[in-house]
Every structure is written in structure tokens, then in C-alpha cells.
Design brief:
This protein is of the alpha+beta class. It has two helices and two strands, in the order αββα. GO terms for molecular function: DNA-binding transcription factor activity, RNA polymerase II-specific; RNA polymerase II cis-regulatory region sequence-specific DNA binding; zinc ion binding.
Length: about 50
């Protein structure tokens, strides 16, 4: 399974799908902390930020 944009290879198709978010400027996950304006393209990255 290969990324059509950068040709990075993955073991599973869902990993390619997850990776494709790195090529997008879309960041739908916003930090809920007051005064923090950070946004993330993946929910797991937001959760890591909140720890």
C-alpha cells in the first residue's frame, strides 16, 4: 500500500488513509484549553497534546 503523493509505503490501507492527512492543511481537532489556539489533523495528536 503506497501513498499516491509521496510514495511512502505502508503495511495496511488504513495507514495510508491516516497518512494522507499529513498532506492536507485541514486540522479539524481544536484544543479546548482556554488561550490555546492549537489545532491538529488527528484526534490522537490532540489527546497527546492534552496530557
Amino acid at each position: 500500500h503506497e501513498c499516491p503523493l509521496c510514495h511512502m509505503k505502508f503495511q495496511r490501507p488504513e495507514h495510508v488513509k491516516r497518512h494522507m492527512l499529513s498532506h492536507s492543511s485541514e486540522k479539524p481537532f481544536e484544543c479546548p484549553e482556554s488561550g490555546c489556539n492549537k489545532r491538529f489533523n488527528r484526534n490522537d495528536n490532540l489527546k497527546q497534546h492534552l496530557r
